[in-house]
Amino acid sequence: MSFFNSFKNSTNQLVDSLNGYSITIKREDLIHPIVSGNKFRKLKYNFEAYSKMDNPRVISFGGAFSNHLAATAQAGKLFNIPTIGIVRGEEWQDKLEDSTTLTFCRRQGMTLYCVTREVYKEKENSILAQKLLAEDPELQLLPEGGTNVLAIKGCREILAEEDRKYDVICSSIGTGGTLAGIIESALPQQEILGFNALNNFEVQNTISEFTKNLKWALISDYTFGGYAKVNSELIEFMNEFYQQYQIPLDPIYTGKMLFGIFDLIKKQKWTWGRNILVIHTGGLQGVKPMNALLQKKGLLTLNYASELFC
Ligand SMILES: *Cc1c(COP(=O)(O)O)cnc(C)c1O
Q1: How many helices (H) and strands (E) does the chain have?
Q2: What is the mean pLDDT of each run of 10 residues along the chain (310 residues)?
Q3: Cα-flanking dihedrals φ and ψ of residue 205, to 5°?
Q4: CATH topology (fold) of 3-37+150-307
Q5: What top-level class would CATH report for the domain 40-146?
Q6: Which of 65, 106, 227, 271 pairs as cysteine with 198 (C-beta 3.0–4.6 A)?
């Protein structure tokens, strides 16, 4: 049985009834410690396709904390498919060991190229990527965040039979691929809320590229300044959340979304349904590198890092 078919679906965990709103977390983070949550869903059909090719290799893109690169590196190792990661920020080349994510990627056998933010922005059109693709005709291009048609197909499998009873479904947004899959598989009466985790104003276009359904809303008030930016209020919330519900959140995506959900409900600004399902998209491998950064700056850290497997 292939790796992706050997896992069970995730379980739902009711955490609270806040002002009469019931909040249930879908524990996609428990699927696998590294290929976790939405990255498992997004890679499933992509790696199934690669594994049918003769001699595939995969190139993709991500930042120094990227859950996507970590998951791709791990899947590459499991499938025995060589992987290349283009990393945002040339400064990382000389200090790969400072990022537990990049160290992990390299240990899985991923070849890493750390490039300037200008080069990174060009992604597959950069001179470096073009050169690598030209040199190797078997090199398969997996877009940033893994978002492509096969990824959306996998994300349609997040919602299951038991999720038909919820009024509202919340998920965090990076590139938007995950939300597109959720929108496509939700019932017509279910409301879908996407919480932006970064200042990506084009995300609406990406989502519309993959789904024509318009029944969803974008919430961009809880980005905390952008990708991987956090403050002590957020870290404190995440520590309290762990203490109260024993559910670890990641600092880049799910922590911000749950902060937003609790904040909207407490401030009586929640205008959607009462029975809320929140997708825990995983990403817990990002806790340790974030803590290292916070520690260096002398800031409050996440206090459940030692209890995680990754
Ligand atoms: C990558 C990631 C997201 C964002 O997924 P997109 O499909 O890019 O929007 C959300 N949550 C976690 C934990 C992630 O790792």
Answers
A1: 11, 10
A2: 79 91 97 91 97 97 94 96 97 93 96 97 96 96 96 97 97 97 97 95 93 95 96 98 97 98 97 98 94 94 91
A3: -65, -40
A4: Rossmann fold (3.40.50)
A5: alpha beta
A6: 227
